[in-house]
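Practice record 12: protein with magnesium ion.
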Amino acid sequence: MGTKRTKIYEGKAKILYEGPTSDTVVHYFKDDATAFNAEKKATIAGKGVLNNRISSHIMTKLEGIGIPTHFLRSMNMREQLTRKVEIIPVEVVVRNIAAGSLCKRLGVKEGTYLAKPLVEFYYKDDALGDPLISEDHIITFGWADPYEMEEIVAMAWRINDYLNGMFMGLGLKLVDFKVEFGRLWGEYGELYILLADEISPDTCRLWDTETGEKLDKDRFRFDLGDLVEGYQEIAKRLGLIPEGGLMKEGEINEDVASQLEEIENELAKERKFKAVKTTKKPQKN
Ligand SMILES: Nc1ncnc2c1ncn2[C@@H]1O[C@H](COP(=O)(O)OP(=O)(O)O)[C@@H](O)[C@H]1O
Ligand SMILES: [Mg+2]
């Protein structure tokens, strides 16, 4: 179409562009990988395509069980259209099995099953290294209010329940995952909380049930093996790419990739949201 798009934000894994309407944004999934607060960096061919596909699939599945998400439709192999939301600056992490920073911080042995899913909050601030915070910090500093937190925690639990079952059926253990939520205001001042950002092997830990092999971003963090191979394995088990995979001699197989984008759009449907409360969007100046 030749229309020039306006870049809104460039993050570590994605670029956000203005969408066709003012209430939408385009997410472009980059091949860049970063870890340890961007201390470790690389470009990995195929990562963006796989994350775009996996995230849109998972978001669609979650919509199906009544979780309101920002996802609208897939646009092409690297891009998806979402509703624009006001991101709540809190990363919500749900853990089923101990791994990563939990082990480091508390000396828990990696692989320990937790007695119940553990919900943690991190303040979204790269300069501060996304510090661990409590719900009280969130309320005290006004990052979200108690009504919003109630909704967010309830959604985090439901997402965990659903994804646990889904991955278990595919021979994968969902060790932990990170989600972000955003605010959307309705016509009459209703406030909706939507699941936003992405759910992908960049934001989940997934271990093979049989072998314990790590198929997620820890492959990159700790040089455990080819990253895209792990992500492809997840996409294959989800039924999103053919057995032969997405890559051909280190490059994306365009024929396979171009078939990926239409599927989820057929599932796009009219969504009904449940308002958390009715309020006025605070005026910023
Ligand atoms: N629907 C949305 N509307 C507005 N912003 C969003 C939406 N979904 C995600 N974002 C934000 O866009 C950015 C995505 O880019 P990413 O590369 O993941 O950034 P980061 O480096 O901050 O993790 C994040 O800051 C995320 O909070
Ligand atoms: Mg991110």
